[in-house]
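Weekly modeling sync, notes
Attendees: AB, CL, MP (scribe)

Item 1: holo prediction request
CL wants a bound-state model with zinc ion before deciding which constructs to order. AB pointed out that an apo prediction alone won't tell us much about the pocket. Agreed to run with the ligand included and paste results into these notes for async review.

Input as submitted:
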Amino acid sequence: MLAHHPSMARFAEGVHGAWTALQIEHVRRCDFCQRLVALEWNSRHPEVKTLAAYAANPEDFPYAAAMRRHLERDACRRCALLSRSPLVKALAALVRLDKKPLEVIALGLEARLRFQQMAPPQEEVYAYEADGGSSLTLHQGGDDSLLVSANINPMTAPSGRVLLEIIGEHGYRATDLPAYEDSRVCGSVQEARHEFGEHVAMLAASASPESLEELATWMIDPRADLRVAAAQAAGALGAAGATPEIVSRLIELQRDQDERVRKAAAEAVVRCGKVS
Ligand SMILES: [Zn+2]
Ligand SMILES: [Zn+2]
């Protein structure tokens, strides 16, 4: 373990993935650094893949104390809502089985939907997150419409679709967007407020072609647990992961010897918008 804290000047970079294994081991055991990690997450939240890594194995997660502080003491709604996402859960299940994270670009944001009958909204809805050349924006257009734009590098969206999950306090919806489209109307603020509750999180994601190929090989793994998790991940990605190979594997898995695999595959086929 390093005796010294990692460089404070480059601490934020470290939190978001730049630390070496040795530095991570220092932070794991250092209360001071854990508090600084939580502080950093208050300005730039954990990445979706970080939420999945924590969900996969909270005990072994190097910044567990920081994450508990972020979710509980700092009560971050974005991260709490995103942690309920089927995609995050599916990624976590894969990490638990294979220890190798699926390569996804995923962005998440949180917004408060204010709407009062017979009165204009007090403040327009606006939320934005960007990472590595991709961005996700939620904003309010004219006529109370709620507009989403996901600008995800098309090279990493082999199916041409991007997954969009909307997670609210009492509602959930998964849909998909064309990877090339600018902006899509997601109903009105009033409807969304009614369907999801006042606080909503949004997650936009796509998986790289390589990771989808990997997912397809996990679907024919001898371990039934891995086939189940892979089918659930394909289902969570929906149309965004529906390459011809994934879809044909899912159709085969509907005749798998294991009942859990057949069930996960059947649900995934529906989510991919394909009828077998
Ligand atoms: Zn330290
Ligand atoms: Zn957060």
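Recorded for review: The chain has a mean pLDDT of 89.
Action items: CL to compare against the apo run; MP to circulate these notes.
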